[in-house]
Amino acid sequence: MIKLSSLTIGKSAVIREFEKSDIHIKLMEMGCVPGETIKVEKVAPLGDPICIIVAGYNLSLRKTEADHIWVEEIAV
């Protein structure tokens, strides 16, 4: 497993778990729930924010938020 923040553009992964913090509830409300498939769509030039596709829509996350999400990359 790796952190979402280290996933590269165009790669897909499945959310496995969160680091326990206050932000995990906010992330779950935005559709980032364990078992959900995500894809990294874009990364800003300086690496922050990260645009992902989750639950059928685009979501931008700060790198600090993405650091709380552990994912398992999907081999294509």
UniProtKB/TrEMBL annotation:
SMART domains to which the protein is assigned, alphabetical: FeoA
Key words of the record: Iron
Keyword Transcription regulation set for record: no
Domain Ferrous iron transporter FeoA-like: 2-73
One Pfam entry name: FeoA
Keyword Iron applies: yes
Lineage: superkingdom: Bacteria
GO molecular function: transition metal ion binding
Name of the molecule in the record: Ferrous iron transport protein A
